[in-house]
């Protein structure tokens, strides 16, 4: 029971980072109807910026600055490149975001090098906290708390602010939103800013385990991608809940399933999310929280 509690908290901490990544994927899809496969590179950029900025400013200020700078770059990419792709085939925009991701990855390597960087924190990353009969890493609890604050803040922004109302209107129907006087272009840019900022925060907290950042960190975004399939493409809540489930199942399968599969189970926990995605695509294509689209003919 003690081990299960420890693994569950570790799984929720991993799921918290996945939730921030899935949130970025989901809000961009709802607003722009495209998948941003450069999202992982934004995650890496935020983490590398954090390792550089923390040397010249306090940790929490460096965190905010990294998120804002990464979000600003995401908004700039949407404004200068991706907005021109409106109305183009989905395949074209996917290829374009993959190309942008390669460019960002090359830029990160040029700016920060290929060496692994440490992710400094104001607390000891190996510090443990007693929870019942179990001991869990303090970093796991801080990751969960920080993610909860971000998610609550996002919910309040979307539900209780004029920009949030504009975001919901634009995600439902951009043409109607334009007729109603909503600045859809500004809403799209702000949506991409939020996606980039949350990706940066996710990258920073992922860099705490095991306290290092390298150029391959962005690939973690692909491990979080199944969450929006399982949760439902147009459901932000579904993507977040599915991301936490994904983190739990990944950690549980690594501890309880991999050892029983022999050589086949060496990295089965990394494949498990995609197996779940394929299963849901077969049994429930719209995901757990997806809605059926009704068209009047």
Quick tags:
two-stranded antiparallel ribbon, mainly alpha, 4 strands, 297 residues
What does this structure look like?
The chain is mainly alpha-helical and 297 residues long. Helices cover 68% and strands 4% of the residues. The chain contains 12 helices and 4 strands; from the N terminus they run H-H-H-H-E-E-E-H-H-H-H-E-H-H-H-H. The protein has helices at 2-32, 39-53, 59-80, 90-112, 138-160, 162-172, 174-179, 184-206, 220-224, 226-231, 236-256, 268-283, and strands at residues 117-118, 128-131, 134-137, 212-213. The strands form 2 sheets. Strands 1-4 form a two-stranded antiparallel ribbon. Strands 2-3 form a two-stranded antiparallel ribbon. Strand 2 (128-131) and strand 3 (134-137) form a beta hairpin. The model has no long low-confidence stretch (mean pLDDT 82).
Structural class, judged by helices and strands? mainly alpha
Strand order of the largest sheet: 1-4
Query: What amount of the residues lies in strands?
Result: under 5%
How would you sum up the global shape? globular
Radius of gyration from the alpha-carbon trace, in angstroms: 19 Å
Order of helices and strands: HHHHEEEHHHHEHHHH
Measured between the Cα atoms of the first and last residue, the distance is: 56 Å
Major sheet description: 2 strands, antiparallel
Helix content: 55-70%
Poorly predicted tracts of residues: none
Mean pLDDT over the residues: 82
Number of continuous helical runs: 12
Q: What's the number of extended β-strand segments?
A: 4
């Amino acid at each position: 029971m003690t081990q299960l509690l420890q693994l569950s908290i570790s799984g929720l901490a991993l799921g918290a980072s996945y939730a921030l990544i899935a949130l970025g994927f989901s809000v961009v899809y709802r607003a722009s109807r495209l998948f941003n496969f450069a999202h992982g590179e934004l995650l890496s950029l935020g983490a590398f910026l954090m390792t550089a900025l923390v040397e010249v400013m306090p940790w929490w200020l460096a965190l905010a600055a990294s998120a804002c700078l990464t979000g600003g770059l995401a908004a700039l990419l949407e404004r200068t490149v991706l907005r021109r792709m409106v109305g183009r085939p989905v395949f074209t925009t996917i290829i374009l975001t993959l190309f942008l991701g390669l460019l960002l990855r090359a830029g990160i390597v040029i700016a920060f090098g290929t060496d692994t960087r440490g992710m400094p924190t104001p607390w000891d990353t190996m510090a443990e906290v007693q929870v019942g009969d179990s001991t869990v890493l303090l970093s796991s609890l801080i990751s969960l708390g920080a993610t909860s604050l971000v998610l609550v803040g996002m919910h309040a922004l979307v539900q209780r602010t004029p920009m949030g109302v504009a975001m919901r209107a634009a995600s439902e129907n951009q043409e109607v939103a334009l007729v109603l006087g909503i600045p859809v272009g500004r809403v799209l840019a702000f949506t991409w800013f939020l996606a980039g900022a949350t990706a940066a925060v996710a990258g920073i907290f992922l860099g705490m385990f095991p306290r290092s950042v390298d150029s391959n960190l962005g690939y973690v975004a692909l491990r979080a991608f199944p969450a929006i399939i399982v949760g439902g493409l147009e459901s932000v809540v579904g993507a977040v809940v599915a991301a936490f489930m994904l983190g739990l199942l990944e950690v549980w399968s690594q501890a309880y399933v991999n050892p029983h599969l022999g050589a086949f189970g060496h990295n089965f926990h990394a494949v498990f999310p995609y197996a779940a995605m394929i299963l849901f695509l077969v049994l429930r294509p719209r995901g757990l929280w997806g809605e059926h689209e009704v068209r009047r003919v």
